[in-house]
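Run log // design_07
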């Protein structure tokens, strides 16, 4: 919606959107190659302005015909040691998943397929590859009618932040080229999640 509003208010502005992993999105903003980035917490980069954007939570994505689709929620203990699709343990979401499982005395799931995004993970679930742990806001895109998204208990909340370079937003002088680059780790996942 933010992009639609921007284009309506300033139709002469060119916008370029790139879907990148968190660390690459941060690096692009730090180097002023991008004006803004949307990234997952935790984030430790003192050279950037960090603004809260939205909250979401991790959910289990599964096919509508799966036996767990009838459940209202999926317990972490039911996912312990189970093979799943999700982001890897080196990503902010992957570390968060491992920490949350450990804090509740559960073995973390085995991420048998590392996905670059919740969108990629959902595409694999829709093709019958397996179950996935994803950012719930992906459900808002309306492209996965064949999937069910179930909350986890206990919940794994996540925070999405907007990052900007300190001292100004323009990565290039506006007079050279009227362009705003929106750089994101998961642009399609940047809306508030709907309730399950």
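design_07 sequence
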């Amino acid at each position: 919606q933010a992009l639609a509003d921007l284009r309506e208010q300033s139709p002469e502005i060119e916008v370029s959107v790139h879907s990148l992993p968190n660390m690459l999105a941060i690096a692009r903003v730090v180097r002023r190659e991008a004006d803004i980035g949307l990234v997952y917490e935790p984030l430790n980069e003192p050279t950037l302005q960090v603004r809260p954007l939205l909250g979401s939570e991790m959910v289990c994505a599964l096919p509508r015909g799966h036996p767990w689709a009838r459940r209202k929620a999926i317990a972490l203990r039911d996912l312990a040691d189970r093979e799943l699709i999700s982001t890897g343990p080196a990503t902010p979401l992957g570390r968060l998943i491992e920490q949350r499982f450990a804090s509740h005395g559960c073995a973390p799931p085995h991420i048998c397929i590392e996905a670059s995004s919740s969108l990629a993970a959902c595409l694999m679930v829709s093709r019958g590859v397996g179950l996935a742990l994803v950012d719930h806001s992906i459900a808002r895109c309306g492209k996965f009618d064949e999937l069910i998204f179930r909350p986890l208990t206990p919940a794994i909340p996540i925070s999405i932040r907007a990052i900007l370079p300190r001292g100004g937003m323009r990565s290039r002088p506006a007079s050279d080229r009227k362009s705003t680059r929106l750089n994101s780790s998961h642009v399609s996942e940047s809306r508030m999640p709907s309730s399950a």
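Residues 171-196 have pLDDT under 50 and may be disordered.
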